[in-house]
# Entry
Amino acid sequence: MAARPRDYVRVAGPDAEDFLQRMLSNDVTAAPCEALLLTSKARVIAPVVVARRQEDFLLLTEPGLGETVIATLTRARFAAKVSIEAEQHESVVLMGSDPMSGVLSTPNREFGEPAVEVIDSHLEPTLSEAEMQRMRIEAGIPAWGKEIDDSILPAEAGLDETHVSFTKGCYPGQEPIARLHHRGKVNRRLRVLAVDSARPGDEIRYREKVVGRVTSAIDGRALGYIRVEVPDDAELAVGTAKARSLH
# Structure
């Protein structure tokens, strides 16, 4: 198990579900679920996990983004009967698919294995941050501040497959998300690389042409955005090191 730093936002009131349904990219009626808070141009403001409690919703977001989530939702509240405020909790990720009884938990797929994120369990972590980082990179899972920021389109990071509903009603950013999904294509995608030496920010080259950059790296593995026209089996270079795509 590993500690999972988070900010937490409570959304309560008679209009809470309808309000979140109109603000987030996924179908909150199926909570717990992963979702995105987006700009009208489909740029990521914050990734969130939506957890339903008996009388309200708890949003789990990245450390430092709680105030941003609160401010963005509050500006859009208008006449909706909802209250939005920060809460303090602690999360731990447990490997395996069985939730703990008596505590709030949500599925977690950030590390490439079935897992649940449990809140206020008071369990002691047994895995280090470096161990979890390696699992995440090998699984090709994007992280906020590394693979995800306001310059990334959700589809480039594969978030349209996990954080977006294409059957629910309108939300900020829906039109460009749907247009790209149904009629367009992205220019780059996230790939896992096998490479002896790499650092975030390093250029990825194919036939001496820069085709991407490394976003995360650890112990012979890296993540990076690479242009889609580069073949999956291409021989790549990162600095003086050879690299190849794993998936």
Notes: Helices lie at 16-23, 66-75, 129-139, 174-183. The two ends are 26 Å apart (CA to CA). Residues 2-183 form a domain with the Gyrase A; domain 2 fold (CATH 3.30.1360.120). The chain has four helices and 15 strands.
